[in-house]
Amino acid sequence: MLNFKKTIVYNIRDLSNHISHYIQNNDEKKVGESVFATHSSERISRLQGMTAGYLYTHQDRQVIQKDLEKGMSISKSTASGLVQRMVKNGLIYTTPSPDDARVKCLNLTTYAKNTMSEINSQAEDTERRLQQGISPEDLATFFKVIDQIRENTK
Prior knowledge:
CATH class: Mainly Alpha
Order of helices and strands: HHHHEEHH
Number of domains: 1
CATH superfamily: Winged helix-like DNA-binding domain superfamily/Winged helix DNA-binding domain
Strand content: 5-15%
CATH architecture: Orthogonal Bundle
Strand order of the largest sheet: 1-2
């Protein structure tokens, strides 16, 4: 009989839950309920947060909706609604592309940039704590195994 506690699936899910709880508890101590809002009714969705993160890490180049669709593996209709909600929520604004006026570039607002900077700093702190006590060799092995598992699932 399979011992589920000795399976990759169980252990990755368990670890993911532990990390999620750790992040949630740490973030609440540092910045309240959400760094994107002061009231729970103003919170943004996880997808909006991930999109802000995508735009933040691609600030060095022009990003259009098609880039977002491809980079985040979302449909055209999902991306379209997402962009509209994020504009409405004051997280992004659009500008005409210098290459093609029919296309709009997606830009983070100053508020979203500042927030993403804070989140990035928190993420770096979390990563340091998660890696604490793990040798560079063991960490390299961990990533190699994770990559192999990812490859096995294709």
